[in-house]
Structure formats: C-alpha cells, structure tokens
C-alpha cells in the first residue's frame, strides 16, 4: 500500500507553470511563432484522456481548427481546461501546425472512509459530504467536505474537532478518500453570567435562555454545548422577557463568549441595560376613517391605566379593533399605536389610531418542513387565506398559533414580495419535533401496597393534529384503563370533538365489596371568549357492584356490609346511567397578559336520567390561581374545588355515584377518606354526596445550580368527603359526618433527561382512625 498523500489542488503555481510551458514550447519549436501576434493550427491532437471524450475537451478549450489565435487566447484555453475540475494536469504543446492537448484525468473515487468518528456516525457524515464512491475525485471538493464535517461537529458543541483528508492511490486510476477525524471534547458552557441586571437575579434569567450551563447531567443534556447560532436567539428571549414585564427600554448590549485555554469550555456573559419599568397611562382611540365610530372601537382596548405595560396587551387590543373593522366590512384598516412617554411618572400614554393601510393581498401561503404534519393542520392556524387582504399583525398571530401547537421546534413565518406590487407570498418554514409522551407513575399506600401506572400520549396523531391518549394502571386491588381521542378542528372549524372511554375494577379496595365501572363520553367544545370555552357532552356508563359481604348467618354480630342497609338488594349488579352535561372553563395561565399571574376556573354539571337506572344531578367546580413572587423565583399556587351529588325522584345514589376523594386530596389512598362503615368487621368506604378540598402550594429553587434542573415544593391540603342520603338502621355503624382532614407534604421536582419527575412525600396532620394514608407518590414523564 502506498503511503497516504495529502490531496493536491490546482494552484496558481501550477497554472503559471502550464502557461510558461506553452510559450516555452512555442519558442523552441519556432521562434517566429513565439514572437508573432497570432497563429493558427490546422490539427488538434488529444492525449491522455480515458473517460472524457476528445470532443468534450475541445469544447472546454474553445479552439477551432484553422482559427487564428493570439497568445492570450491560447492561455485562456488552458485556463478553461484547468478550471473545468476534470483534469489533474493540462499541457498545451504546439508541434508544427498541430496543437497537442495532453491531459491527466482526475481519478475515480473508489471508497470514502471516515476514521476516528464516534459521536457522529458514518451514515450521518456521508449525507454531509459531496465526495462519493464512483464519482470523480476533486481536491477542492474534498477540502470543502472536510470543512463541512468540522461545521457539523461545531453544531454538536465540539469546536475543537479537526478533520484531515487523506488520499490513497489505487491502480486503475482510482483513489480511496479517508477523512481522519479528531472529535475533541464537547465545548460546554461552563458558566453563564449577567451584568447590569437589578430587577431579576442571574438564576432567574438563566431559566429564560435556551442555552444552559453544563452540570452533572452533561452527558445527557445537549443544551449545555456552545452553539454560536443560539446566542442571538437567547438575546431575543431576554429582551422579550423584560419587555413583557414593562421594561420597554431594555437592551442586551452585548454577549461575550470567552473560550477556555484548552478549548473545552466557554464562559458567557450577557450585558443588560434594563432601563425603567413603565405602566400604562392614558389610553385613547382616534379615527382617520370617517365611517368608523371611535366610541365603538374605544371599548375594545380593555387596558386599565396604572397596570404594568405589556406589549401583548397592546397587540391584543389592536387585534380586537382590526377584527371589528373586518366585521363591519372595512378592509385595509390598520390600527397604529402611538405612544407618548411620561418620564416623570414612568407611564406610557397609548393612542390607538384607525388609519387606512396599503391595498395588499395575500397571493399564496407556502409551507415547508412539515414532513409528518399535514398542510391543513398548519393552514387552519391562519385566519387569512389566499386572496384576502394582507394584515401583518394577523400573520404574526398565526405564527404564534403555529408555535403554540407544540408540534415544531422552530416555526418561522415571513412575508415576501409576490408576483405584483400589491401581492405578497407568506412563507412558513417548519422544523418538526417529537410529539409523543410516555409517562410512568408509582404510588405507595400502607394498605394497598405499590401501584403502577403507564400513560401513552400522542398529540399529533398521524400528522393530523389529533390527540390520542392511552393509560393503564394497576395495584394490588385496583386495575383500570382509559382511551382518549381529540379532534381539535372538527368539521374544519374551531370545534373540539373528543371521545373518552374508561374501564376500572376494584377488588375489595378498602372495602368489603368490589366494583366494575365502564363509561363512554363524546363531547363538543368551542370558544366563547379569548380565555373561555364551553363543552357539551353525553355520558353512557355501566356500573356493577358485586362480591358484597353479606355477613355470617351463624354470627348475629356480623350482619354484612353496611351498604346492604343503604340500598335495596335489587340495586346490586349492573346498573346503567345516561346523561347530558356541560362545562365552562376560563383559563389565563398560558394566555394571560401578565406572565406572572394565572387563573383557572371550571364549572360543570351532569344530568343523569335520559334512560338508565339512576336519575340525579352532579355539580362540580374548581378555582385555581398562581402567582410568581420574589423576582419570579417562587411560584405560589392555590386551589379550591368541590362537588355535590343530588339524587332526583325515587333514585338513591350508590357508592358508584358518589364522590370518593380519589385524586383530589393528596396523602390518602383510593377510597381512603369519607363516610365509612366503622364496625369492626367491615369498615367499608361508602363515598359521599359532597366533597370540598382547598390546597396551597409553593414551588421554589433549592439553591443548587440551575443546570441541575432541581426544584422543591411544599403544600398543605385540607378537605373532606361526607354525607349520605339514607343511614336508617345504621346508627353506630356508619359515620357520614363532616370531618376535616389536613395533610402537609413536600415534593422534589426534577426535569430529568428522560422527562419531568415528581416525588411527593405526605403526612396527615388531621384524620379519622379509619382513614387510609398514602405517604409516597412518584410520577415521571418522557417524550418520544
């Protein structure tokens, strides 16, 4: 085997040498020709070509037989042949009236090898390089491929990577090309710091950035590598963070990135000029379009003076006004926010001006990058279609809706000039990301032992934007599963169609009876306001109560389960429920104007009695709020929820219709609280007609470096389940009174490499002697 030689390319020296050879040959052959201003050849002779046709070479040279040529034209012919990239060497040798064009073709690439690569596989590198087997070898292409490989490693955070291309000569005018790679270490972000930040700590600002510091999980977490292209994105994230909180003059004046001496780490510093925090001042509306009523649009601003300034509030007001103009048939109306600064009291007066915009139309919408997601899923996020008047603000809003889908890691929406001055083309460039999630859960109870659950979710099923969820749970006495399907754009409209099915069984779960429950529930949900939605649903359920302890006839003290005294015996076995229900939900946690606050309110009722064996009304309500305090380092959450089950007519609820407190109050097992048969032989959980739970929680950092992604939480829950319809004949054996329970707990939250993990540890402060505690709960979620 020949010793590998470094690839050689056609340099300037070789070009000059070839040109000199032409003139030297002409001078030796005929001094008169060398000194002449022009000359001609009656014949052209091609030598050395194997794969390339002679006529192709003559075409590249651009020389015709018998044509009169100057010395410069002959040199140009040489340059054209050499610049074609087909020949390793070129000689033009005059021999009398014949010009001999002698070439040496570049060899054919036999194989392409990658050596020393571990982090990037051969298949990935082969897609990057242009040098391929059975193609013509090109020194320039090989050098360019080496640079591309270095760039690929830099994008993976390995800025110290080096690539040395080698060429091995083989017989038959073939070569092997080997890229010798030294990957180097990952160039990690050792430290991210900030200067000029007074309102927010370094730790809070680090959570805003896409770039993360390297920590103990540096082997798994890829965001701790230095990617130069991400720096500008981080600057924009910081700017948006401050502006959404009233710092309108914020500037990220610079980002310094200093590499460590051994090139394996970076130290990044963001220089911030915060400025002052501003609030809204006077808010007014004017119109330069006579046919539009100012008072009608002024009511749509909905901005209160004295509130911290938010660009989102201004954009929302403009959107409402421009939509109102469209409803009134006024096209090309633009709302310009004219801002006046009041430095003394740090307020911003906003004047919304209704003006006539340019007459520009949307020619078409081009979507690229959605390999899995169907075009229609993206297109329905646009309220503008081809032929509509162009509204830049609506296009930006459409881009935000596309990003909010959660299907894409990057979504860029831009407008460019169309085929005419009054036409624009909207380009949508997307990068898809995983949309599936696999969640594992575990819980431990003193009586029930270890329980496990698995949840499988796909939020972009078959690229249609549909949600499919499947869950399975199992414990020593409980088993269950559920299936959920959601179509978010039913019939092509903003209607969410959902179908939910569930099945569960309990085998003497803290009781002397077993249950089977199955339900099917289709529903339709639609918006009634920006943050409010309304749902209509139908529920068909089949519940079964069996394996009831009927007591020991030989033992008068054991008269069986007290549920025998709650219901007639002919109500045991399978019973059907059929009913209609509705829910109203108001949620500002993700769409609110102030990112520090959020409220969720839900109220719903279900009426059972459309056939079936039970008639009654179930009412539930939930109110939840959250607020970030202490420079947004701590998140406070409070929840209040409750429910009432009211039977109608001659119906009487069973355990299967009542509330059990499952999943509502932490720290207790399934059927662990509520009315109970307190006799020594049974102590059955009976469920209750009423439940109420209040909870407060504080989530906070643990003081560890932010790259560890660890935080803590403490919570306090208080609540109860109580009330039965009929306790006749159960005096002294059934307790259905209102007894408040309280639980204190601590949680460890970890954004682990495989997904969010939560561990809850609880202790009941106040409980009844027959309650069943659950002291530990674990949940982990991963994505795919």
Structure description:
The chain is α+β, with helices and mostly antiparallel strands and about 775 residues long. It has 6 domains: about 5-105, Roll (Ubiquitin-like (UB roll)), CATH 3.10.20; about 110-180, Roll (Ubiquitin-like (UB roll)), CATH 3.10.20.310; about 190-275, membrane protein fhac (Ubiquitin-like (UB roll), Roll); about 280-355, Ubiquitin-like (UB roll) (Roll); about 360-430, membrane protein fhac (Ubiquitin-like (UB roll), Roll); about 435-784, Porin (Beta Barrel), CATH 2.40.160. It is built from 13 helices and 36 strands. The strands form 8 sheets. Strands 19-20-21-22-23-24-25-26-27-28-29-31-32-34-35-36 form a 16-stranded antiparallel barrel. The longest helix has 18 residues, at about 10-30. It is elongated.
Itemize the secondary structure elements and their pairings.
Elements: E1 5-6, H1 12-29, H2 31-35, E2 38-40, E3 43-47, H3 54-61, E4 68-70, H4 71-83, E5 87-95, E6 98-105, E7 108-115, H5 122-128, H6 139-155, E8 162-170, E9 174-182, E10 188-195, H7 202-206, H8 228-243, E11 251-259, E12 265-273, E13 279-287, H9 294-298, H10 311-327, E14 333-342, E15 347-356, E16 361-368, H11 375-379, H12 392-404, E17 408-417, E18 423-432, E19 436-445, E20 449-461, E21 466-474, E22 478-487, E23 496-507, E24 514-527, E25 532-546, H13 563-566, E26 573-587, E27 597-612, E28 616-629, E29 634-647, E30 676-677, E31 690-701, E32 710-722, E33 734-735, E34 741-752, E35 755-766, E36 776-783
Parallel strand pairs: 3-6, 7-9, 10-12, 13-15, 16-18
Antiparallel strand pairs: 1-8, 2-4, 5-6, 8-9, 11-12, 14-15, 17-18, 19-20, 19-36, 20-21, 21-22, 22-23, 23-24, 24-25, 25-26, 26-27, 27-28, 28-29, 29-31, 30-33, 31-32, 32-34, 34-35, 35-36
Helix pairs in contact: 1-4
């Amino acid at each position: 085997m020949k010793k590998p030689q470094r690839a050689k390319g056609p340099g300037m020296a070789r070009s000059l040498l070839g040109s000199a050879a032409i003139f030297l040959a002409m001078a030796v052959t005929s001094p008169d020709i060398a000194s002449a201003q022009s000359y001609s050849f009656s014949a052209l002779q091609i030598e050395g070509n194997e794969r390339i046709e002679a006529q192709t070479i003559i075409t590249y040279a651009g020389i015709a037989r018998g044509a009169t040529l100057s010395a410069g034209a002959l040199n140009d012919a040489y340059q054209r042949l050499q610049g074609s990239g087909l020949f390793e060497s070129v000689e033009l040798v005059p021999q009398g009236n014949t010009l001999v064009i002698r070439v040496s073709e570049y060899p054919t690439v036999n194989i392409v090898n990658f050596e020393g690569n571990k982090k990037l596989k051969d298949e990935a590198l082969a897609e990057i390089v242009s040098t391929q087997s059975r193609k013509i070898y090109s020194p320039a292409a090989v050098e360019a491929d080496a640079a591309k490989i270095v760039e690929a490693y830099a994008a993976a955070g390995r800025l110290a990577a080096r690539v040395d291309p080698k060429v091995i000569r083989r017989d038959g005018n073939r070569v092997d090309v080997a890229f010798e790679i030294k990957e180097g270490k990952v160039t990690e972000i050792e430290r991210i710091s900030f200067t000029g930040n007074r309102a927010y700590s370094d730790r809070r600002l680090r959570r805003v950035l896409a770039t993360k510091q390297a920590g103990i999980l540096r082997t798994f977490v890829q965001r701790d590598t230095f990617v130069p292209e991400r720096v500008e994105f981080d600057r924009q994230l910081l700017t948006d963070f401050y502006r959404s909180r009233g710092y309108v003059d914020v500037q990220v004046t610079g980002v310094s990135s200093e590499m460590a001496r051994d090139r394996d780490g970076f130290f990044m510093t963001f220089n911030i000029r915060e400025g002052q925090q501003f609030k809204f001042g006077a808010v007014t509306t004017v119109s330069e379009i006579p046919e539009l009523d100012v008072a009608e649009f002024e009511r749509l601003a909905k901005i209160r003076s004295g509130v911290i300034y938010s660009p989102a509030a201004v954009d929302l007001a403009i959107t409402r006004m421009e939509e109102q103009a469209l409803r009134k048939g006024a096209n090309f109306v633009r709302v310009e926010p004219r801002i006046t600064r009041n430095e003394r009291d740090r307020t911003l007066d906003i004047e919304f001006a209704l003006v006539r915009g340019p007459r520009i139309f949307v020619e078409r919408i081009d979507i690229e990058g959605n390999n899995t997601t169907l075009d229609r899923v993206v297109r329905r996020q646009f309220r503008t279609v081809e032929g509509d008047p162009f509204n830049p603000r609506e296009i930006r809003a459409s881009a935000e809706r596309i990003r909010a889908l959660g299907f894409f890691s990057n979504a860029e929406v831009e407008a460019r000039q169309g085929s005419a001055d009054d036409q624009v083309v909207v380009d949508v460039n997307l990068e898809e990301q995983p949309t599936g999630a696999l969640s594992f859960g575990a819980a431990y109870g003193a009586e029930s032992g270890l329980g496990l659950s698995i949840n499988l979710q796909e939020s972009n099923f078959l690229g249609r934007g549909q949600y499919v969820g499947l869950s399975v749970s199992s414990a020593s006495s409980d088993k269950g599963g559920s299936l959920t399907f959601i179509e978010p754009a039913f019939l092509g409209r903003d209607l969410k169609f959902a179908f939910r099915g569930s099945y569960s069984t309990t085998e003497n779960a803290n009781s002397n009876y077993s249950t089977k429950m199955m339900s099917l529930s289709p529903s339709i949900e639609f918006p009634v306001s920006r943050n409010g939605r309304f749902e209509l649903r139908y529920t068909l359920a089949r519940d079964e109560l069996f394996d009831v302890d009927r007591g020991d006839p030989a033992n008068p003290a054991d008269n069986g389960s007290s549920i025998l005294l709650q219901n007639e015996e002919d109500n045991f076995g399978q019973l059907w429920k059929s009913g209609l229900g509705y829910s109203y939900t108001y949620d500002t946690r993700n769409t609110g104007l102030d990112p520090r606050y959020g409220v969720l309110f839900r109220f719903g009722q279900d009426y059972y009695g459309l056939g079936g064996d039970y008639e009654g009304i179930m009412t539930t309500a939930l109110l939840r709020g959250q607020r970030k305090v202490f420079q947004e380092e701590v998140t406070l959450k409070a929840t209040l929820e409750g429910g009432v089950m009211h039977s109608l007519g001659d119906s009487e609820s069973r355990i299967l219709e009542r509330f059990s407190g499952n999943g509502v109050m932490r720290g207790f097992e399934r059927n662990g609280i509520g009315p109970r048969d307190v006799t020594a032989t049974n102590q059955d959980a009976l469920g209750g007609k009423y439940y109420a739970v209040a909870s407060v929680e504080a989530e906070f950092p643990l003081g560890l470096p932010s790259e560890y992604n660890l935080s803590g939480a403490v919570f306090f829950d208080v609540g109860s389940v109580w009330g039965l319809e009929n306790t006749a004949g159960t005096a002294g054996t059934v307790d259905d009174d209102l007894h408040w329970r309280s639980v204190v707990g601590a949680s460890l939250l970890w954004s682990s490499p495989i997904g969010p993990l939560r561990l809850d540890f609880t202790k009941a402060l106040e409980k009844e002697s027959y309650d069943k505690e659950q002291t530990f709960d674990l949940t982990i979620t991963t994505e795919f």
